[in-house]
């Protein structure tokens, strides 16, 4: 977790709140909060973070309405709303 004195805010991921430190990758914030599953495959298999650098596309989420954003590429901001690809149909 962040050092003492760092400002902690929250973001919303699929109706759950996660602690964030502004500027940290969204994927890292989700993992720190124990949210490891970000979508289901076409075969309904659970999918989570894989490469942790945004190259494999397993971490694609919707961030504030923008689809297919890599959770390890996008930086966290307080109040950000994140949805999995399965949340939005």
Keywords:
8% helix; two-stranded antiparallel sheet; 5-stranded mixed beta sheet; Ubiquitin-like (UB roll); mainly beta; single chain; 89 residues
What does this molecule look like?
- With 89 residues, the protein is mostly beta strands.
- The protein has a single domain (8-83), classed as 2Fe-2S iron-sulphur cluster binding domain, sarcosine oxidase, alpha subunit, N-terminal domain (Ubiquitin-like (UB roll)).
- 8% of the residues lie in helices and 35% in strands.
- It has one helix and seven strands; from the N terminus they run E-E-H-E-E-E-E-E.
- The strands form two sheets. A five-stranded mixed β-sheet has the order 2-1-7-5-6, with helices on one face. Strands 3-4 form a two-stranded antiparallel ribbon.
- The longest helix has 7 residues, at 26-32.
């Amino acid at each position: 977790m962040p050092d003492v004195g760092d400002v902690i805010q929250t973001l919303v991921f699929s109706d759950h709140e996660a602690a964030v430190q502004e500027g940290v990758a969204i994927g890292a914030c989700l993992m720190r909060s124990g949210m490891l599953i970000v979508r289901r495959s076409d075969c309904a298999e659970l999918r989570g973070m894989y490469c942790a650098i945004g190259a494999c596309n397993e971490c694609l989420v919707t961030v504030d309405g923008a689809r297919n954003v890599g959770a390890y590429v996008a930086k966290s901001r307080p109040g950000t709303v994140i949805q999995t690809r399965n949340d939005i149909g």
